[in-house]
């Protein structure tokens, strides 16, 4: 199957399927990211690359899922995430710009925007949006490495709670398809790219 055919099938997939796939890839990101903390060498390197790849997939699926809420903000959120993924990958090769303290800063912005989009959506519980936004604030403490070190591990807990809750919800429930379709119809959006 070609990439174009695969992207066409994804575009035609139901919103619930896309949400559940986002949950699967989010879980894979979390598990491989956690694994990377405990292994070193090539295994750790591979785990980080897999985690990053999974997050790119989550980002693209979220972009499509949240376009009906606000297309521009969904795109901006995706860009923050993709830049965070790129900076994280570049840091593996010691090529990340030195003035960027940590790629988690980009994910903080991403989580804030996704939290806002969830809160404004009609197809996911607002509490998940609030948890994601609070998680984003935790990741933003990495703007200041001394502050992040001082607050650690308390600044990590909101992100783990927010992203973990969203992942679990997506895996178990997905999105409310009827409400997603209503919001998408009102916004005039139905395709992936």
Question: What can you see in these coordinates?
Answer:
- The protein is mostly helical and 193 residues long.
- It has one domain.
- Helix content is 77%, strand content 0%.
- The chain starts with a helix and ends in a 6-residue tail after the last helix.
- The mean pLDDT is 91.
How do the strands and helices of this protein lay out in sequence?
Elements: H1 3-12, H2 15-38, H3 41-66, H4 71-92, H5 104-120, H6 126-140, H7 145-151, H8 157-172, H9 177-187
In short:
The protein has 193 residues and is mainly α. It has 9 helices and no strands.
How many DSSP E strands? 0
For the record, the count of structural domains works out to 1
| Class derived from helix and strand content | mainly alpha
Main pleated sheet? none
- The DSSP helix count reads 9
- The gross shape turns out to be globular
Beta-strand portion reads: under 5%
Alpha carbon gap, first and last residue: 19 Å
How confident overall, as mean pLDDT?
91
List the main descriptive attributes of the protein structure presented here.
9 helices; 193 residues; 0% strand; 77% helix; single chain
């Amino acid at each position: 199957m070609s990439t174009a055919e695969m992207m066409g099938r994804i575009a035609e997939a139901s919103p619930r399927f896309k949400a559940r796939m986002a949950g699967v890839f989010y879980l894979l990101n979390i598990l491989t990211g956690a694994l990377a903390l405990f292994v070193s060498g090539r295994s750790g390197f591979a785990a980080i690359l897999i985690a990053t790849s999974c997050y790119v997939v989550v980002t693209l699926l979220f972009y499509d899922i949240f376009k009906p809420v606000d297309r521009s903000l969904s795109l901006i959120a995706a860009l923050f995430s993709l830049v965070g993924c790129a900076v994280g990958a570049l840091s593996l090769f010691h090529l990340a710009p030195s003035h960027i303290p940590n790629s988690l800063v980009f994910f903080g912005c991403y989580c804030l925007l996704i939290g806002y989009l969830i809160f404004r959506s009609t197809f996911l519980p607002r509490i998940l949006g609030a948890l994601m936004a609070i998680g984003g604030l935790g990741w933003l403490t990495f703007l200041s490495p001394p502050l992040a070190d001082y607050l650690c591990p308390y600044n990590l807990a909101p992100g783990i709670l927010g992203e973990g809750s969203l992942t679990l919800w997506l895996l178990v429930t997905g999105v409310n398809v009827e409400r997603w379709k209503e919001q998408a119809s009102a916004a005039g959006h139905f395709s992936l790219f």
